[in-house]
Design brief:
Layout: H1 6-11, E1 23-30, H2 42-52, E2 56-59, H3 66-71, E3 78-87, E4 90-95, H4 107-116, E5 120-123, H5 136-144, E6 150-155, H6 161-173, E7 177-181, E8 193-198, H7 202-210, E9 214-217
Parallel strand pairs: 1-2, 2-3, 5-6, 6-7
Antiparallel strand pairs: 1-8, 3-4, 4-5, 8-9
């Protein structure tokens, strides 16, 4: 993977860090035009990946995996197929998915459906009331049932760092792996948050190595400058 550009390092200074041999940068949470609330095209994702020097990007579009599958053939990095899904108690992310999980699936059923696909259950922005975070009661119930693998302890769109710290404390208290993601809805957000971790092979190894990871990131939620745009058509799925 090429080194981050000067402009990317100016936006996200932690990109200048040097990784240990055999380690990779992984953004666990990002969005593209298949999400519906993002207009980021495949070409823009690809350029942002090159600019940031990310090695692995989890594409976690809302209620869709089609874009992630298409991007596995287009991006200059590895892609993990994910989905950010809305349950009746808030959002969950499934990583290493093979197929989409329907909107509105109850939290425990959604977590089991992720596991049935051999995937990883990842809780995004768990305590951020400005987002569609999962309720604390639902989170506690999932953890008690052993249905959570990792918690997002740095979400770059969460403006109050106390909320990210609370997530980190929760992960430590419940012995859950800690993750970080840009939650990018615009190209320049890629690189705002990610994990630095030993390289991995598949979901089981990923989850084991994630426990050795360093979470890196800062708040970055600048809006995209408006321009007239014509996007390729997308269909859900």
């Amino acid at each position: 993977m090429p080194l981050p550009t000067v402009a990317a390092v100016e936006r996200h200074p932690h990109l200048a860090s040097v990784l240990p041999a055999g380690w990779v940068r992984v953004d666990l949470h990002s969005h593209t035009m298949w999400s519906g609330d993002s207009t980021t095209t495949p070409d823009e994702v690809g350029q942002a990946v090159l600019d940031s020097g990310l090695d692995v990007v989890c594409i976690t579009d809302h209620h869709a995996v089609k874009g992630a599958f298409e991007l596995t053939r287009q991006l200059p990095c590895r892609v993990i197929i994910g989905e950010e899904m809305r349950t009746h108690a808030g959002e969950l992310i499934g990583l290493f998915l093979r197929e989409r999980i329907p909107f509105g699936t109850p939290p425990s059923e959604a977590a089991r459906a992720i596991r049935d696909q051999g995937g990883v259950v990842y809780v995004p922005h768990p305590f951020d009331p400005m987002r569609r975070n999962i309720t604390e009661a639902a989170l506690d119930a999932l953890v008690a049932a052993g249905l959570v693998d990792a918690i997002e302890v740095i979400n770059a769109k969460t403006s109050l760092q106390s909320l990210n710290r609370r997530a980190a404390e929760y992960a430590l208290r419940h012995d859950l792996a800690a993750g970080a993601g840009s939650d990018a809805h615009v190209p320049l957000a890629l690189g705002a948050a990610y994990v630095e971790m030993p390289d991995f092979d598949g979901p089981t190894d990923f989850l084991a190595k994630l426990r050795e990871a360093r979470t890196v990131g800062h708040h970055w939620d600048e809006p995209r400058k408006w321009t007239a745009r014509v996007l390729p058509g997308t269909t859900s799925g």
